[in-house]
Amino acid sequence: MTSFPYTKASEKKKYKVSENAFLPRFVCVPVVQEEGVVCRPVVQVGNIVQEGQVIAVPQGIHDCKIHSPVPGEVVDIFTGVSASGRPEQMIKIAISGSFSYTGKKCESFDWKNSSPKDLCDRFSETGVINTFNILKPVSLSSQINSLSSKASTLVVRMFDEDPLRITDSFISSHYFKEIKKGAEITAFAAGFSNIVYILDSDTDSDSIEMDPDEKFFFVSAKKYPSGFPQQLVSLFNKSYRRKAELQISEDDLFTDSTSMYEVYKAIVEGKPALEHIVQVTGNCLPSKGILNVRLGTSFNDIVSQIGGFLKEPNLIVVNGYVAGNSVFSGFVPVTKYVKSISFVSRKRTPEQLVVPCISCGNCRKECPQGLAPDFLYKYKSEEYPLPEAYVKNALKCSGCGLCNSVCPARIPLSQIITVLKNSLK
Q1: How far is residue 105's CA from residue 102's CA, in Å, rounded to a whole number?
Q2: What residues have CB less than 8 Å from 378, skipping those under 6 apart?
Q3: pLDDT tens for residues 175-211?
Q4: d(CA 305, CA 23)
Q5: Among 28, 213, 304, 319, which has the minimal tally of Cβ within 10 Å of its Cβ?
Q6: Which residues contact 103 (CB under 8 A, 6 or more apart)?
Q7: At CA 8, angle to CA 3 and CA 13, rounded to 5?
Q8: Over the stretch 22-81, which tens digit does the pLDDT of each residue have?
Q9: Inter-residue contact 342 to 362 (CB < 8 Å)
């Protein structure tokens, strides 16, 4: 079996600080920022908006509102390509006027004297989403309200599940106190007394201020996958069952350092979701870095700050080479779920042409859960006959995407198995 090594600790240490990205002339804010939730614009072309003003609202009471990341004028409402690769309605704003939050001290939310319901309402109002599953970002409030009765622990993954992305690791290193406060607030909202912080084995524990009564646990993230719920549950329960005096399960609430930092900003700093920390890299750029980017800023505007392209990219990879997705335009705007952007040349772009399955067996050898992705794919897409018990094994799939990475036919195995899993559920 081949394996994907995680980014080395020495590479992570190269990023000493995040820089504020330049403010662009325009931002384009998609009305879809979480999985399956389309918000309704409440502004029209010609309206003047303030920084932090609600510009789109969802239908569900626990889904997130969308705010204007800048002050200015709404100049267009159109359909463009979002960071998910799908066409979405967007609100285009030309920046002008004064800022309401930037550079100003805002009033924090008195969460200690509030109820869990009040906190969840605040999460929705300020637009906090959980990006633990980067392909399915969801409202933190709606996730808390849909937890099963078996859930009892908040699990905070402090490293990136994608082997070539370091955004969550960077945030963990530089905003550790904020993450802990965000986790404390989230646990209160969920009614949990247990918080488990899971760090990878490359974490420099000396640089982290750990309180004796808090539960920090290190897992081996040397090989991918290690950061999905199934792997985290298995690693934790096998290694720390006695030491921790508790077990975690997939019913618990899993979050990441990015989400907990967003909770901190929303509750302690009193700011709605306006900006996002993004890793920018790729062999088409003269340099790479970690930027604090206004939501709605286009990928092209970010590249302009870095110094332009050394060569035109053939592909733009969003959120990591293994766990993320790809887009083909630099006019795509940054959303709440964008953690990294990689600009890749043709030389380093794999062949995208999909051909029929050649039954090579690579996906079966690679699957960490011991599944047969090719058979499950054929069952769902070609009505290939399989025993019912065999089909139900699809529920064991973590969605790591390793089957996709080794398929010479470029078949979207992981995506089809996800569709199968959803139909089984």
Answers
A1: 8
A2: 357, 384
A3: 999 999 999 999 999 999 889 999 887 776 666 666 6
A4: 10
A5: 213
A6: none
A7: 160
A8: 999 999 999 999 999 999 999 999 999 999 999 999 989 999 999 999 999 999 999 999
A9: no
| pTM of the predicted structure, to 2 decimals | 0.91
- 3-state DSSP assignment of residue 181: helix
- Helix, strand, coil distribution of the chain in percent, nearest 5: 30, 20, 50
Cα 228 from Cα 224, distance rounded (Å): 10
How do strand 54-57 and strand 215-219 relate by DSSP bridges? Answer: unpaired
Using alpha carbons, select from 243, 161, 229 the residue that is nearest to residue 397: 229
Question: What's the pLDDT tens digit per position in 80-132?
Answer: 999 999 999 999 999 999 999 988 888 999 999 999 999 999 999 999 999 99
What distances in angstroms separate CA 248 from CA 125, 136, 224, one per listed residue? 30, 21, 21
Nearest one of 37, 223, 225 to 141, comparing CA atoms: 37
Contacts 24+ apart (CB under 8 A), 415-422: 416/376, 416/377, 416/380, 416/381, 417/371, 417/373, 417/376, 417/377, 417/380, 419/380, 420/376, 420/379, 420/380, 420/391, 420/394, 421/394, 421/395, 421/397
Contact 144, 267 (CB under 8 A): no
Q: Name the band, by pLDDT with cuts 50, 70 and 90, for residue 1.
A: very low
Please give the C-alpha separations between residue 71 and each of 26, 47, 132, 136, 378, in angstroms, as whole numbers.
Answer: 10, 11, 30, 29, 51
